């Protein structure tokens, strides 16, 4: 069979935007995979724990409400 | 099942003999480093320190002791350690000096090579002396790094007129096998494993390359440097594949028309054997015939015609023979200039270094090699005389297993040679220049190709392609991704052996079960179908040898009174009662007392004067004593029996249990020894102690070790029909359960976990030894064997809805999405563009402030989970002005990622990290929790698989007097034809164990006895047969017959309906053919195949056929010209320049495509048109 070419999904994939990085200053909190310290990173900062230098960080769980369906 | 109030005394368990009930160990572990883990050691399972010891039943205690030091995957680790510690140094030793063509005074010598501890690539090795790197294998898995350690060398070289020494120069990085002696996990206590995010049960033996776990599978090959006699197409031949570090070649001695010839690739034609022997310095015909045939007149008569060649070719002396051979050598390089070829020189060169290379020629002493050729010739003569003397290629003793260490060794050697070559070329380039600005320092050039070595090894490991020019080796599929479907699948992969035979050949020999693989290879564990019998698995107690030194063994041979064969004549070698001693296939000595020699030699081995892996055996057919020290032999430990008594007595077993002796002590004391296949077949081995007689030499440690780790899971396998065990071996690897203790810290691409795994009620010794009971994959289901509704025919199962609600068969599926933020050559890189979040777009709702989906959210179809932007301009050449920190021209293109699966998942974990090249990686783990549904696949441990046919409400299920309802109802028709008696026994033992509160065993060739189980059942007020009185839940009446009822361990297999469910009405089409796409992942159509088409044709449903194959597929309207039969367009024929007679027809687009493709190949296809509804 010939290779399948997926239909172009969304128009967004081709629209070009100029780098409108408005939220440049915002930082997001992560958790260090080694020492469990909270690390807040801004955009473009190297991924590294400030206290132990570990390079694996995890995103913290959302504080939005999540509803599960128990079955 | 609720326990009955009655309580009986000790139950009988274990392998045949009565033992008191198991107690948990009360005594603290004897002086050992890790107190708590000792309590958990399988060693103490079933016995407390104070229990009496009986050698006949307790010798199995040796098995856990063995598994502590060897076995399972330890052979991989041993092999890798041998490579790093010994082989690496040998390779460097062989390629020690680098000279320069330009300056003959220059040299560089490697004095040592070492592999350091693993570290990160950006850590300096100079710091490692003071502080060890804190890298862990799991960090490498998460960050997509290679778990590797620097290779450093010490060098001395010439700089100007001085000699310079330098130490610790890094030449590359070597991926490190987990749990090898260079690994950070080596020597760490089990309790530390959690700190390192590693699983203490994980066996190691694999590599982490670019974040992936790679295993080098064990490769099976015909042994090197051994003579094999076979008859190929009626031609008798003896062949030997010589393999040394320098060269690999194959030499044949063949029998053609009653004459013996030597054949080799380097020679243009076959050369009479007599010429070869003459050229090697055995000039007299008398000596030749004595060496080959001895005094035996039959052999002499057979060999005598070979001398006719001498008179025919006029070759009588060594010189003449060398001239003759020299003239037949293939020209490899073009003759340089007008120099005439010196045939004698070439012949000597060829004979000494190319023919049978593994027998070295020192100082023109061709005698050993001549003897080797003579022996090959003799073997051919013998096989001709007695065809039973032809060797069996499939005999396991003629095979060698290639392990990770050996594969890496040839890989490293090749890369190191290339490294040296490139280094030399570089030096030459500099030294050629007449005057240099500064003094030449070779050290500066050393770092220029550091990466080649690293990358070469890394690439080979990650792709599995071993392409070595020097050995003309092109092997693909050497490494495999370690299957982490379940713990068992990982273990099963580490013990797997792949064969080099082609799968297509229709010979049954290599696939058949060989009697010689008893105890070495598992008889049950092999795949079905194509690779059946070619892919094998190691048995539980096997070890694969590493290479041992040959010289000390050689010396010992002479010390034991054997005479050097070089000084022996044909009379002595082939005389009556004379036995030739072969070391690794090469004859070195003659002895007249082979039996004494053998026992003496074994005694030396048993007292530990040489490696325990050196094997010796007598071959009475060839009058030879064979000693083997080479690598890759399969061997296993056996208890030594002397004078009808086992050497292992209760005293030693007591010491073993107390911890004052370990397995190696048993070896050095000569109580136990390793025996390879050849030696095993030269021994009389008793299976049980009662079978020992005056001829017995060894005693099995435990009969169930003939099975492998995967087959060891089956309870009572000796009561099952054998293919059922084979089926279970395949299915055990697909069972969902626990993977490892660190299963939640590692982010696998695909991970199946069972929510409530249970350890089996009916266990086996193997289960405890490989610790399957700590990482189980299944649940103990209460099974009623009865017919229920119609939803259980053909192996379908009925599930209890209440059990499912309470978590039976519930599993979690984790999927990983990994995204790399690439860095481009022009300094630009991908970025996560949080500002692209559109609050009005409902698909963007779950995205957080950083442009990544929030952890814990439910992702449904078409939800966006990552807002990624790629720079529009990634080329280097284009004018980009001042590239800022994010490079490019500031133009960005959105490439957001959307969730595409039809079933929703929850975001479980999101990891961000950087890999080696400072590329950001984001790994999103998603989780689905699935309860069993109709069509999910379950299987017991006896090759009895079935799908869920109906999930029945508990109220409708039958119940027993105690109110127990089954979790699973299985149709009794599954039993008669499959003959899985083991499954019935498992139910019986499981039921007895549950009622009694005891652990029951179904160990192969042992296990709890049915009779004892029946007694327990009776004492608890149940029927001895395991059948219960049940009441129907539907009618409330008693079932008309008693029902076989009890617990059976059930595995949930990875095949689930949710992953396979697929339907489509309309959907995407392939671009080329315009037919519907194929496969579920592409939302493809359901194919009406050839056979279905045949049905429609046979039935005559032509309109349906047309509708299925064209209208609903790729119908296409074309204009066809009636006149020329060609396709036109828009009602116009371009060929006839007319619109007349052009009519529209509908045809499959694929047919139209075919016509055009044919036209492009200059094949004209004419379409003839007719009336659709002819008037006549």
UniProtKB/TrEMBL annotation, chain A:
Location, primary (coarse class): nucleus
Ranges in a coiled coil: none
Annotated GO MF terms: DNA binding; DNA-directed RNA polymerase activity; zinc ion binding
Stretches for region Disordered: 1-24
Alphabetical list of Gene3D superfamilies matching this protein: RNA polymerase ii, chain L
InterPro entries assigned to the protein according to its UniProt record, in alphabetical order: RNAP_P/RPABC4, RPABC4, RPABC4/Spt4
Protein keywords: Metal-binding, Nucleus, Zinc
UniProt feature, compositional bias: Low complexity: 8-20
Compartments reported by the entry: Nucleus
GO annotation terms (biological process): DNA-templated transcription
Keyword Lipoprotein attributed: no
GO cellular component: RNA polymerase I complex; RNA polymerase II, core complex; RNA polymerase III complex
Pfam short name (any one): Zn_ribbon_RPAB4
Family: Belongs to the archaeal Rpo12/eukaryotic RPC10 RNA polymerase subunit family.
Name of the protein: Metallothionein-I gene transcription activator
Organism of provenance: Mytilinidion resinicola
Lineage: Eukaryota, Fungi, Dikarya, Ascomycota, Pezizomycotina
TrEMBL record, chain B:
Gene Ontology molecular-function annotations: DNA binding; DNA-directed RNA polymerase activity; ribonucleoside binding; zinc ion binding
E.C. number: 2.7.7.6
Stated name of the protein: DNA-directed RNA polymerase subunit beta
Species annotation: Mytilinidion resinicola
Family classification: Belongs to the RNA polymerase beta chain family.
Top enzyme class: transferase
Catalytic activity: RNA(n) + a ribonucleoside 5'-triphosphate = RNA(n+1) + diphosphate
Function, as annotated: DNA-dependent RNA polymerase catalyzes the transcription of DNA into RNA using the four ribonucleoside triphosphates as substrates. Second largest core component of RNA polymerase III which synthesizes small RNAs, such as 5S rRNA and tRNAs. Proposed to contribute to the polymerase catalytic activity and forms the polymerase active center together with the largest subunit. Pol III is composed of mobile elements and RPC2 is part of the core element with the central large cleft and probably a clamp element that moves to open and close the cleft.
Locations listed in the record: Nucleus
The entry's keywords: DNA-directed RNA polymerase, Metal-binding, Nucleotidyltransferase, Nucleus, Transcription, Transferase, Zinc, Zinc-finger
GO BP terms in the entry: termination of RNA polymerase III transcription
Residue ranges, annotated region (Disordered): 1-34, 1064-1085
Segments forming domain RNA polymerase beta subunit protrusion: 71-441
GO cellular component: DNA-directed RNA polymerase complex; nucleus
PROSITE patterns for the chain: RNA_POL_BETA (PS01166)
CDD domains: RNA_pol_B_RPB2
């Amino acid at each position: 069979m010939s290779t399948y070419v997926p239909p172009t999904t969304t128009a967004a994939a081709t629209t070009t935007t100029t780098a409108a990085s408005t939220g440049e200053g915002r930082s997001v909190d992560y958790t260090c995979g080694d020492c469990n310290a909270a690390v807040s990173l801004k955009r473009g900062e190297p991924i590294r724990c400030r206290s132990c230098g570990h390079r694996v960080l995890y995103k913290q769980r959302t504080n939005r409400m999540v509803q599960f369906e128990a079955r | 099942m609720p326990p009955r109030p009655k309580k009986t005394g000790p139950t009988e368990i274990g392998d045949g003999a009565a033992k008191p009930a198991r107690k948990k160990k009360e005594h603290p572990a004897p002086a050992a480093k890790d107190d708590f883990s000792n309590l958990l050691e399988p060693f103490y399972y079933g016995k407390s320190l104070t229990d009496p010891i009986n050698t006949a039943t307790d010798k199995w205690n040796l098995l856990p002791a063995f598994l502590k030091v060897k076995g399972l995957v330890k052979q991989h680790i041993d092999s890798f350690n041998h490579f790093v510690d010994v082989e690496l140094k040998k390779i460097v030793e062989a390629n020690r000096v680098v000279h320069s063509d330009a300056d003959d005074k220059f040299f560089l010598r490697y004095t040592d090579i070492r592999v350091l501890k693993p570290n990160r690539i950006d850590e300096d090795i100079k710091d490692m002396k003071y502080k060890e790197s804190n890298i862990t294998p799991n960090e490498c898995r998460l960050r997509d790094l290679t778990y590797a350690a620097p290779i450093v060398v010490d060098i001395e070289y010439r700089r100007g007129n001085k000699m310079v020494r330098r130490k610790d120069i890094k030449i590359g990085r070597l991926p490190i096998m987990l749990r090898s002696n260079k690994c950070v996990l080596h020597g760490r206590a089990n309790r530390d494993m959690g700190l390192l995010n590693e699983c203490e049960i994980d066996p190691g033996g694999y590599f982490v390359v670019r974040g992936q776990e790679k295993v080098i599978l064990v490769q099976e090959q015909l042994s090197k440097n051994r003579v094999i006699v076979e008859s190929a197409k009626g031609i008798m031949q003896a062949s030997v594949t010589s393999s040394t570090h320098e060269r690999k070649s194959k030499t044949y001695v063949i029998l053609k028309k009653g004459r013996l010839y030597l054949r080799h690739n380097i020679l243009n034609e076959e050369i009479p054997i007599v010429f070869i022997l003459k050229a090697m310095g055995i000039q007299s015909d008398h000596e030749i015939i004595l060496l080959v045939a001895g005094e035996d007149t039959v052999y002499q008569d057979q060999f005598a015609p070979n001398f006719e060649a001498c008179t025919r070719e006029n070759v009588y002396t060594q010189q003449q023979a060398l001239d003759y051979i020299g003239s037949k050598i293939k020209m490899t390089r073009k003759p340089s200039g007008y120099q005439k070829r010196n045939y004698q020189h070439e012949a000597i060169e060829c004979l000494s270094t190319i023919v049978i290379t593994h027998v070295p020629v020192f100082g023109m002493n061709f005698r050993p090699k001549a003897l080797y050729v003579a022996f090959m010739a003799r073997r051919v003569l013998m096989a001709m005389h007695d065809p039973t003397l032809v060797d069996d290629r499939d005999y396991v003793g003629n095979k060698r297993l290639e392990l990770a260490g050996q594969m890496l060794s040839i890989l490293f050697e090749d890369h190191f040679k290339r490294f040296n070559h490139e280094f030399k070329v570089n030096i030459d380039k500099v030294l050629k220049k007449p005057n240099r600005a500064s003094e030449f320092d070779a050290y500066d050039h050393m770092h220029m190709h550091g990466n080649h070595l690293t990358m070469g090894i890394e690439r080979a490991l990650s792709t599995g392609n071993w392409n070595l020019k020097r050995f003309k080796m092109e092997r693909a599929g050497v490494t495999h991704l370690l299957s982490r479907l379940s713990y068992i699948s990982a273990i099963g992969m580490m013990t797997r052996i792949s064969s080099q035979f082609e799968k297509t050949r229709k010979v049954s020999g290599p696939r058949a079960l060989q009697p010689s693989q008893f105890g070495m290879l598992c008889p049950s564990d092999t795949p079905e179908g194509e690779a059946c019998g070619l892919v094998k698995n190691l048995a539980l107690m096997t070890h694969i040898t590493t290479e041992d030194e040959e010289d000390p063994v050689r010396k010992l041979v002479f010390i034991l009174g054997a005479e050097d064969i070089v000084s022996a004549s044909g009379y002595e070698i082939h005389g009556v009662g004379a036995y030739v001693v072969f070391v690794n296939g090469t004859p070195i000595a003659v002895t007249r007392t082979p039996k004494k020699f053998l026992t003496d030699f074994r005694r030396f081995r048993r007292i530990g004067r040489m490696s325990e892996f050196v094997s010796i055996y007598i071959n009475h057919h060839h009058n030879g004593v064979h000693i083997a020290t080479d690598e890759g032999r399969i061997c296993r430990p056996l208890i030594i029996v002397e004078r009808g008594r086992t050497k292992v007595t209760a005293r030693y077993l007591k010491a073993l249990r107390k911890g004052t002796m370990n397995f190696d002590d048993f070896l050095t004391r000569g109580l136990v020894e390793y025996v390879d296949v050849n030696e095993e077949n030269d021994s009389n081995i008793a299976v049980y102690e009662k079978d020992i007689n005056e001829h017995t030499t060894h005693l099995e440690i435990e009969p169930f070790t003939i099975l492998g780790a995967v087959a060891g899971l089956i309870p009572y396998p000796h009561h099952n029909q054998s293919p059922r065990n084979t089926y279970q071996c395949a299915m055990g690897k697909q069972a969902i359960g626990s993977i490892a203790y660190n299963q939640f810290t590692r982010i696998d691409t695909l991970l199946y976990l069972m929510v409530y795994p249970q350890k089996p009620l009916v266990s086996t010794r193997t289960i405890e030894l490989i610790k399957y009971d700590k990482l189980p994959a299944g649940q103990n289901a209460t099974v009623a064997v009865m017919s229920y509704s119609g939803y259980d025919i053909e192996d379908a199962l009925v599930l209890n809805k209440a059990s499912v609600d309470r978590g039976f068969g519930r599993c979690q599926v984790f999927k990983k999405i990994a995204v790399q933020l690439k860095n481009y050559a022009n300094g630009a890189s991908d970025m996560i563009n949080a500002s692209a979040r559109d609050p009005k777009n409902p698909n963007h709702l779950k995205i957080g402030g950083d442009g990544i989906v929030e952890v814990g959210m439910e992702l449904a179809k078409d939800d966006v989970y990552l807002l990624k932007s790629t720079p529009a301009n990634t080329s280097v050449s284009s004018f980009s002005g001042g590239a800022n920190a994010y490079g490019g021209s500031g133009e960005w293109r959105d490439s957001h990622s959307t969730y595409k699966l039809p079933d929703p998942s929850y975001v479980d974990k999101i990891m961000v990290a950087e890999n080696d090249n400072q590329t950001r990686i984001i790994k999103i783990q998603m989780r689905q929790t699935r309860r069993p549904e109709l069509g999910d696949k379950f299987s017991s441990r006896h090759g009895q698989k079935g799908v869920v046919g109906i999930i029945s409400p508990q109220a409708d299920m039958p119940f027993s007097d105690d109110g127990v309802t089954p979790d699973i109802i299985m149709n009794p028709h599954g039993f008669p034809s499959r003959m899985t008696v083991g499954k019935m026994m498992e139910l019986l033992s499981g039921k007895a164990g549950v009622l009694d509160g005891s652990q029951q065993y179904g160990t192969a060739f042992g296990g709890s006895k049915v009779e004892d189980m029946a007694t327990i059942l009776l004492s608890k007020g149940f029927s001895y047969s395991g059948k219960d009185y049940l009441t129907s839940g539907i009618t409330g009446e008693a079932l008309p017959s008693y029902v076989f009822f009890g617990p059976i361990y059930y595995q949930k297999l990875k095949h689930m309906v949710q992953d396979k469910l697929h339907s489509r009405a309309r959907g995407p089409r392939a671009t080329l053919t315009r037919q519907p796409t194929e496969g579920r992942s592409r939302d493809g159509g359901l194919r009406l195949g050839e056979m279905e088409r045949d049905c429609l044709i046979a039935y005559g449903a032509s309109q349906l056929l047309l509708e299925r194959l064209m209208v609903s597929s790729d119908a296409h309207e074309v204009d066809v010209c009636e006149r020329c039969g060609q396709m036109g367009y828009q009602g116009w024929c371009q060929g006839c320049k007319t619109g007349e007679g052009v009519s529209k027809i509908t045809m499959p687009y694929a047919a139209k495509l075919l016509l055009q493709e044919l036209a492009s190949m200059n094949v004209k296809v004419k379409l003839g048109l007719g009336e659709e509804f002819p008037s006549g």
